[in-house]
């Protein structure tokens, strides 16, 4: 009997191009891939709905960005990767090498009272506790959401 060592069929690698207007940001928020990643790079955490990345329809939240315009992001600090993305404003076409991962599920957790601590585990996905996320409280109804340190798209 031979073991199947192939990758999950839902994970794909590829090159893609995102077209945008000169002076327009890419419209993405990235986070570090986290401890224990086989390939330390950045992960697409969210996209601005009206931004070029979302409009292209080629990227999904959870995708790993391996390189931008042939510049590898592997092993680079998050701040350096953010600077590289911010530096794309004057370009009209951006080349991305990505590893596309399975879709991400968003879960909204409502607590009866803010005094109760949250405790959870994520398997086969991104553990938000290992990224540089901060929690923003919605004072009106006790809902909690996660955002990256800067919270604004690049």
UniProtKB/TrEMBL annotation:
Coiled coil: none
Disordered: region residues: 129-154
One Gene Ontology term from the biological process aspect of the record: chemical synaptic transmission
Stretches with biased composition (Basic and acidic residues): 129-138
PROSITE patterns the record matches: PDZ
GO terms assigned for molecular function: amyloid-beta binding
InterPro entries associated with the record: APP-Binding (IPR051230), PDZ (IPR001478), PDZ_sf (IPR036034)
Record's keyword terms, sorted: Repeat
GO cellular component annotations of the record: cytoplasm; dendritic spine; plasma membrane
PDZ domain span: 15-100
PANTHER family named in the record: AMYLOID-BETA A4 PRECURSOR PROTEIN-BINDING FAMILY A MEMBER 2, SYNTENIN RELATED
Record's protein name: PDZ domain-containing protein
């Amino acid at each position: 009997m031979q073991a199947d060592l192939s990758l999950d069929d839902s994970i794909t690698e590829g090159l893609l191009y995102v077209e945008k207007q000169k002076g327009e940001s890419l419209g993405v928020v990235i986070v570090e891939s986290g401890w224990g990643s086989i390939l330390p790079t950045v992960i697409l955490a969210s996209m601005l709905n009206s931004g070029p990345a979302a409009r292209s329809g080629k990227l999904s939240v959870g995708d790993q960005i391996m390189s931008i315009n042939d510049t590898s992001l592997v092993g680079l600090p998050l701040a350096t990767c953010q600077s590289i993305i911010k530096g794309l404003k004057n370009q009209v076409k951006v080349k991305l090498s990505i590893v596309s991962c399975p879709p991400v599920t968003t879960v909204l957790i409502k607590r009866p009272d803010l005094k109760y601590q949250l405790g959870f585990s994520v398997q086969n996905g991104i553990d938000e506790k290992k990224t540089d996320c901060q929690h923003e409280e919605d004072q009106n109804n006790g809902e909690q959401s996660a955002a990256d340190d800067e919270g604004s798209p690049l």
